[in-house]
Amino acid sequence: MSMQDPNRPPRPRPGQAAPASRPATPIIAVVIAAIAGLIGLVILRDVKSDSGSNNDGASPEVTDTTEPTSDTSFTDESLPPETTMPVLVRTGATVVVSNASGKKGAAGALTDELKARGYDLGKAFTANSGTLNDTTQVLVQPGDAAALAVAKSIMAEMGLEGTPGPLDESAPVKQSDVNGATVLILLGLDKAGQSLLPLAGDVTANTEVAITAAAETITTGS
After folding, report:
1. Fewer CB atoms inside 10 A, N or C side of the chain?
2. What CATH fold (topology level) applies to the domain 94-187?
3. Straight-line distance from the first to the last Cα atom of the chain, in angstroms, rounded to the nearest whole number
4. Going along 106-182, which residue ranges are E strands?
């Protein structure tokens, strides 16, 4: 008589069906859980996509709440400053030129050029004997605002700097040669034989303009 292993399933008898195998329940459960997780991720993605757009599928508008600055001016410091041409007053005074340079004919040439630009010129003459000036001086009758304006205009056209001096007894000329003129040019070596400066945009030639130096006076000896 043979011994049978108690752990071994009994052999089916002839004519009896074999017992059915147990289903793999744990494996199926894992597969179902994985599928459910994928479906959940897809649904969550669609929900986030819908919340980021409006009903028409367009992206929501973004409103800029930044307030514009009130200062909209622009200044370019690299640009050169504007230049203002001097106002030329060529009428209102009689001008005479005295040659103190020693160059023959220099006073007459300057007289003709000033006259051509609209100034009222007297007859040119030579300064006192022995008078030679290195620099040109413009003298004006003290207290005469109109003559002062003309004198400043002449200095601008000749390229002279400074302030006109007083036309008084200290000038190295004879009063008879001045002959009542209120502006005197003592022509020195620096300007003798030179032409007047060209002034672009000069629109006041031969015209009377307002005198802005009415309050200015020349004090004798200053």
Report:
1. N
2. Alpha-Beta Plaits (3.30.70)
3. 160
4. 120-121, 125-126, 137-140, 165-166
**d(C-alpha 143, C-alpha 166), whole Å:** 9
Give the residue carrying structure tokens 């200044």: 75
Q: What dihedral angle (degrees, nearest 10) is formed by the CA atoms of 108, 114, 118, 124? A: -30
CB 217 within 8 A of CB 143: yes
Minimum mean pLDDT range among 30-39, 51-60, 147-156: 51-60
Tens-place pLDDT, residues 166-219: 999 889 999 999 999 999 999 999 999 999 998 755 544 443 443 444 334 444
Rounded alpha-carbon distances, angstroms, from residue 90 to 134, 154, 167, 175, 186:
26, 8, 18, 23, 18
Q: Which residues contact 22 (CB under 8 A, 6 or more apart)?
A: none
- To which residue do tokens 């969550």 refer? 44
Rounded Cα gap, residues 142 and 122, in angstroms = 19
Interatomic CA distance for residues 208 and 67, integer angstroms: 54
